[in-house]
Amino acid sequence: MNRKLKKFIKSPGIFFRDYLNKRYPVKNCEQGFIDFEENNVYLVENYINKLDQTLNYTSNFDVDVVFTWVNDQDPHWKNKKREALKEYCEFTEFSNNDARFENHNELFYSVNSVLKYLTWVRNIYIVTDNQLPIILEENEKIKIVDHLDIIDKKYLPTYNSHVIEANLHKIEGLSENFIYFNDDVFVAKPLEKSHFFRKNQIASIFVSEKNIYDMEKRGVITPTLRAYKNCIPLIKKRYGIEVRNALVHTYIPLKKSMYQKAWNYYEKEIESFLKNKLRDKNDLNLATFLVPWISYLEGKAIVSTEICYYFNIRSPVAKTQYANLISKKGNRPHSMCINDSLNYKGENKKFSQDFKKFMQEFYNE
């Protein structure tokens, strides 16, 4: 008897509750706001922004965007990966999951969402492995950065996102304040620079209500969760605080100086995992955990609101969320993270076509 059937027999009420929540969620973001509360969040943000504009304080500073990206259909990249991993057996479960590298043209939509809605961004850096992404139109803001430009040659090639993210601050010409994007994160409406960095250059930290230890109790230990947990004792030893919350699955405002502090504080621990070709047990998560939390504890970041609709491209809820987002023309979330993993393999065989259809309709307003 499978797990779902047991649940239906023993607790039919809970079974139907969970089924409906998965298909028709009332809570769409990781900060815990219920659907009808979202508009109140936007109203408060707009009010605070108006107050901020009345202050006699101007501070002009540059903000860049950084993407990491790979084209899994590139034959040269496939062959290089195959050769590099022939003798590499130390990867954890899910580290070599095909969906981690699968390309649904997300980068095209994500970059264009930045160009459309974050017009104040100076440069958009795309970090990649000797590949050239196809963007609809050439744009002087877009700069291609090769792994060789930021990662020591002895650690290359690498297929470990944690290794790549650990070196983002080394991009030549990168501004002090920058925003890190995965290519499955999309800006959903026009946002002010102050959503990411206040006028005094304090960064936003978008804290999730998800407790890392509760997540561990509920399911499989993923490489990402393990990398979070590896950071926790390092933070506690230096600051005396045990950080328990993950961040929202969205863009991450970061400061180059805080990246350098992380390296200064934990150089030995960082260098110990840079050799990992795939995500492994001793990885650290710098971009989406260690550096943001150091920034907060050093007084360089403040907890801020972020409504990001986060769901899996292959899941049963995807079509529901697509329709929901299309209907919210005047009340869109800040962002969307439309993730891809093989957890839902086979449930929606047209997931890639559905995704592209949604993107075209959402952004061609």
Q: Portion of residues in helices?
A: 25-40%
* Global mean pLDDT: 88
Number of strands: 12
Largest sheet: 5 strands, mixed
What is the CA-based Rg, rounded? 20 Å
**Spatial gap, N to C terminus:** 48 Å
Give the helices and strands as they follow along the chain.
HHHEHHEEHHEEEEHHEEHHEEHEH
Number of domains: 1
Tell me the CATH topology.
Spore Coat Polysaccharide Biosynthesis Protein SpsA, Chain A
What portion of the residues fall into strands of 2 or more residues?
Answer: 5-15%
Which ranges are low-confidence, i.e. pLDDT below 50, for 5 or more consecutive residues? Answer: 13-20, 97-101
Class derived from helix and strand content? alpha/beta
Strand order of the largest sheet: 3-2-1-4-9
CATH architecture level-2 label: Alpha-Beta Complex
Give the number of helices: 13
Written overview of the protein:
With 365 residues, the chain is an alpha/beta fold. It has one domain: Alpha-Beta Complex (Spore Coat Polysaccharide Biosynthesis Protein SpsA, Chain A), CATH 3.90.550. It has 13 helices and twelve strands. The chain has helices at residues 3-10, 12-23, 38-54, 75-84, 106-117, 147-150, 161-165, 212-218, 223-239, 256-271, 286-297, 317-327, 351-363; strands spanning 63-68, 124-128, 142-146, 177-182, 185-187, 203-205, 207-211, 245-247, 252-255, 301-303, 308-312, 335-339. A five-stranded mixed sheet has the order 3-2-1-4-9. It has a three-stranded mixed sheet with strand order 5-12-11. Strand 11, helix 12 (317-327) and strand 12 form a beta-alpha-beta unit. The longest helix is centred in the N-terminal third of the chain and has 17 residues, at 38-54. The termini are far apart.
